[in-house]
Specification:
The chain has two domains: about 240 residues, LmbE-like (Rossmann fold), CATH 3.40.50.10320; about 70 residues, no CATH class. The longest helix has 22 residues. The chain is built from nine helices and 13 strands. By secondary structure, the protein is α/β, with parallel strands linked by helices.
Length: about 325
């Protein structure tokens, strides 16, 4: 990486493992950086970007965290901590307030003032359903935040993240950015819930600065509700090197990547989201055609990014996506 004010602090012991930011088309934090970190739930900002936030602040840049949900649909830690079985609407609201308060404590350690947290209060475990509503319901709040902060770097969950809120958050932000009339920001993505192969695709790895790593782990401890039942897993996620992918427009495939078995097809649904909104079909009724490359959407594509998700139309205690989203 070239020397200068935009240089990410280096750690000699790990420099051989680092792909420098310019190689991925991103210069790193600088004095003029305006970094927007999108977090579907409280703690995602710390796990995925706690060190990046500190590096941007240390360089003199501005940081804002956009919290999409309060993480209130989190029943098992709540049952454990509050010693209760039944969780109703009032209990969920109280849990959401608790998690947002923990987030304020974490951001204070990371150097982000309370005024630079923006919370939309969208439904936890409901971002895919939100995406199916008329686009103005979710696009207008996102455009308002983009207009207010005017970021030059936006950090979002990866499309391949297996948590349904994370994949949907990527789609929501990509579609909002495509409709925004501001200057296009550098777009980076992060993976929290996913497989090692997907994480290896993140081209930008921040060098480890020990002071920033220690502060990040201290900030993680402020998310006490999430450590009650999953301390080992959450600390392991936060202890990894922070890796990001540089998202390029038009990086999708022409054909759908899935080959669903015939017995599953009556239970499968296909959701397609673009600038006009989201539409869902059962697989047998979806506008698909098949050729040598696989299944393709027969409907014509509009302007801007387009995404598809394959999912089962069956209740399950397993919250993570099996197929998830893909860009077309």
């Amino acid at each position: 990486m070239a020397a200068g004010p935009s240089r990410i602090p280096q750690a000699p012991a790990r420099s051989a493992r680092v792909v420098t930011a310019p190689a991925a088309g991103w210069p790193g934090p600088a004095a003029g950086t305006r970094l927007l970190v999108v977090a579907p739930h409280p703690d995602d900002e710390t796990i995925a970007a706690g060190e990046l936030i500190q590096q941007a602040r240390a360089a003199g840049g501005a940081v804002r965290v956009l919290l999409l949900t309060d993480g209130d649909d989190n029943p098992w830690p709540q049952r454990w901590i509050e010693r209760r079985i039944r969780i109703g609407a009032a209990e969920r609201q109280r849990w959401g307030r608790r998690r947002r308060a923990e987030l304020h404590e974490a951001l204070d350690l990371l150097g982000v003032p309370a005024a630079d947290l923006r919370a939309l209060g969208w439904p936890d475990m409901g971002l895919t359903a939100l995406l199916r509503r008329p686009p103005a319901q979710w696009r207008t709040p996102l455009l308002r935040e983009l207009d207010d902060f005017r970021p030059d770097t936006v950090v979002v969950p990866a499309l391949a993240d297996r948590h349904p809120d994370h994949g949907a958050a990527h789609v929501l932000l990509r579609l909002a950015l495509a409709a925004w009339d501001g200057p296009p920001p550098a777009l980076l993505d992060y993976l929290v819930h996913g497989r090692e192969a997907a994480d290896a695709g993140r081209a930008i790895e921040l060098p480890c600065v020990q002071a920033f790593r220690r502060t990040k782990l201290l900030a993680l401890e402020r998310h006490r509700s999430q450590l009650a039942l999953s301390a080992g897993r959450v600390r392991r996620l936060a202890g990894r090197a922070e890796r990001f992918g540089a998202v390029a427009p038009g990086g999708g495939a022409a054909a759908l990547p899935w080959r669903p078995a015939a017995p599953l097809r009556p239970w499968l649904r296909l959701t397609v989201a673009d600038a006009d909104g989201a539409r869902t079909w059962r697989w047998p009724q979806a506008p698909l055609r098949r050729d040598g490359a696989g299944w393709r959407l027969a409907a014509a594509a509009g302007q801007g990014p387009r995404f598809a998700k394959l999912h089962l139309d069956l209740p399950s205690p397993w919250i993570f996506d099996h197929w998830g989203w893909r860009e077309l």
